[in-house]
Amino acid sequence: MTDSERKAMKAFDAKVRQLIKEYVQLKSENDELYSELERKDQEIEALRKEVDSCKQDYETLKLAKMISISDSEHKSAKQRITQLVRDVNKCIALLTQEEQQQANS
User: Fold this and answer.
1) Whole-prediction pTM value?
2) What burial class does residue 25 get, using C-beta atoms within 10 Å of its C-beta: 0-12 exposed, 13-18 middle, 19+ buried?
3) Region 5-28: what's the mean pLDDT?
4) 1-19: string of b/e by CB count within 10 Å (b at 16+)?
5) 37-68 burial, b for 16+ CB within 10 Å, e for fewer?
6) What whole-number distance in Å separates Cα of residue 11 and Cα of residue 16?
């Protein structure tokens, strides 16, 4: 082997070692990134579950609020409807009296 061949082999060996070193470094970085990605996916899944739970709690609260409003205002609404029916009946009675008076005249 000649001196130039030895130099070429040393240069080639150095470049291969450098490539292996960079490969190991990039592989390590890649593994770290995959681990971080896995952690982020787990975090996203946990947050999705929390959002779903909050949505369910909100719907339950909304339903409970509607029921409580319905119960507390039920009597009041019934009284208002009863009063409106009485008012309508009075109007009908007055109109009927007026028609009878006009028919008798």
Assistant:
1) 0.51
2) exposed
3) 95
4) eeeeeeeeeeeeeeeeeee
5) eeeeeeeeeeeeeeeeeeeeeeeeeeeeeeee
6) 9
